Amino acid sequence: MPQTYRRLDLSIDQQHALLTAARQLAEEFAGTFGTETIELFLHSSYDQLALHGKIPNYLPLLAERFARQRLNALARVEGHSDGRPVVLFLCVHNAGRSQMAMGFFQHLAADSAVAWSGGSGFASEINPAAVASMAERGIDISREYPKPWTEEIVRAADVVVTMGCGDACPIYPGKRYLNWDLDDPEGKSVEDVRPIRDEIERRVRRLLDELEVPTA
């Protein structure tokens, strides 16, 4: 079992939660990554999310989820791929456009493909109007959380879709990039977000067709 190193900046409860998370991840990635790698990814994920986290008690759980995504990405980069296409949706805050795109992609593709998202300057919470507009379509993104992108996540993606992050978006030679010119839903009402949502759905469906991914 991993023995997560002591973090003096964390409460006892937070340290315990991270230790539990490290043990869980160690079980999931046994034979793929060692303790040192898992703890490094878990604690660096915590530190990145803590930059904007509003509710410290939730950060260990979110750090575990983010670390799991990053470790899955690293495994793909190192050749442990299951063959499913991976699409990464990037915007500025990872609170609206990229979250809605990921929501549609996951809903339509189910287990046939993988979708991730990130932001160049990620926000502290998901845009409530984006959550509400997606709920109207029967898709729940309320449990998602804004997060940055990392090198292994970008490298593992087959397609990177950018939405307004401009020069801040990471560029890797040989990777397929798509730029979707979409209005930013920040500060908009649910009524104003609906046209953005609908355009995102159209583009996601088109992308899935291009990737020959069966949809639900």
UniProtKB/TrEMBL annotation:
Report the superkingdom from the record.
Bacteria
Q: Which Pfam families match?
A: LMWPc, Phosphatase-like_N
Q: Which residues form the Phosphotyrosine protein phosphatase I domain?
A: 85-210
Q: From the UniProt annotation, give the residues forming the signal peptide.
A: none
Give the residues annotated as coiled coil. Answer: none
What keywords sit in the KW lines?
A: Arsenical resistance
Q: Which CDD domains match?
A: LMWP_ArsC
By what name is this protein known?
Arsenate reductase ArsC
In its UniProt entry, the species of origin is given as Nonomuraea antimicrobica
